[in-house]
């Protein structure tokens, strides 16, 4: 891998193509990017103790709370039915992260029988009062970026229809009645991202970023992840290497569906920990 922090800093800022020129109110969001060099060991094995510490630090930073328990309880309540929504395909969410989120919720006082896996069809979010999105950071051959917004595509009940017109309408799914307002946290598994699109994961385009990216604004989190993917692709080629198809869904989620901000000027990024090749 030829990417370095220096080239990332020198790279042009990320531009997300606008799909709607209409003005909208200014927004403000925060995204946490926490990395630890030791998160992945030999053979890319997850160090669960390190990842647990990363998860705790991320929760504190996102919520502003001083303890992990109070951080969780500021996002969800013991009476909630909480659905964990990992990425199942292409670059799946690490099982260690899914397990640690569940364990951490239980330690915070959430009954274990009220926590469930909720990836799947519309019946999954309908059965939940709160969702925690746990996507893996990756490019995708149908959507350009296949991380946060695409993670709920099965909730539509008609996933193929959302791949029309370069998947520009993915944000619409987040506004469906059985989904809207239920997502309390977006926590992206950026331990080992995939920066080219598949349909099969190519190890040449995977690297150990050793990070978690988190926030409560799904579009802002997607935008930061997209920037990391974009800059890594440029570092690999030594020149711009645009995603194909273009990730039009990101700007549309902001401008058409009002889910959050895709404008970096409105996003405060909080980097924590290991900074080498951070690509921000």
Q: How is this structure best described in words?
A:
- The chain has one domain (5-20, 30-273).
- Strands 1, 2, 3, 4, 5, 6, 7, 8 and 9 form a 9-stranded mixed beta sheet that branches.
- It contains 8 helices and 9 strands.
- The chain is globular and about 50 Å long.
- Helix 2 crosses helix 4.
- With 280 residues, the chain is of the alpha/beta class.
Q: What's the topology here?
A:
Layout lengths: L4 H6 L18 E7 L12 H16 L4 H8 L6 E5 L8 H13 L7 E3 L5 H4 L3 E5 L1 E5 L3 E2 L24 H4 L9 E12 L16 E5 L2 H20 L10 H8 L11 E7 L7
Parallel strand pairs: 1-9, 2-3, 2-4, 4-7, 5-7
Antiparallel strand pairs: 1-8, 5-6, 7-8
Helix pairs in contact: 2-3, 2-4
Report the sheet with the most strands, covering strand number, pairing sense and barrel closure.
Answer: 9 strands, mixed
Shape, principal axes of CA atoms: globular
In which range does the helix fraction lie? 25-40%
Number of domains: 1
What proportion of the residues form beta strands (DSSP E)? 15-25%
């Amino acid at each position: 891998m030829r990417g370095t922090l220096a080239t990332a800093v020198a790279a042009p800022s990320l531009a997300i193509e606008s799909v709607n020129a209409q003005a909208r109110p200014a927004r403000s969001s925060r995204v946490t990017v926490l990395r630890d060099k030791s998160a992945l060991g030999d053979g890319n094995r997850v160090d669960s103790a390190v990842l647990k510490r990363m998860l705790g630090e991320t929760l504190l930073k996102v919520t502003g709370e001083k303890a992990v328990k109070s951080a969780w309880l500021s996002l969800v309540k013991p009476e909630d039915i909480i659905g964990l929504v990992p990425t199942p395909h292409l670059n799946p969410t690490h099982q260690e992260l899914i397990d640690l989120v569940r364990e951490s919720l239980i330690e915070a006082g959430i009954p274990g029988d009220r926590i469930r896996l909720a990836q799947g069809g519309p019946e999954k979010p309908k059965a939940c009062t709160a969702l925690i999105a746990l996507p893996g950071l990756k490019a995708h051959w149908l959507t350009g970026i296949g991380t946060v917004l695409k993670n709920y595509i099965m909730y539509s009940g008609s996933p193929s229809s959302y791949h029309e017109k370069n998947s520009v309408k993915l944000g619409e799914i987040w506004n469906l009645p059985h989904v809207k307002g239920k997502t309390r946290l977006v926590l992206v598994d950026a331990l080992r991202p995939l920066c080219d699109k598949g349909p099969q994961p190519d190890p040449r385009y995977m690297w150990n970023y050793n990070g978690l990216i988190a926030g409560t604004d799904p579009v802002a989190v997607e935008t930061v992840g997209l920037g990391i993917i974009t800059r890594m692709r440029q570092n690999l080629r030594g020149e711009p290497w645009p995603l194909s198809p273009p990730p039009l869904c990101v700007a549309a989620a902001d401008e058409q569906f009002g889910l959050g901000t895709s404008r970096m000027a409105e996003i405060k990024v909080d980097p924590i920990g290991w900074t080498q090749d951070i690509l921000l």
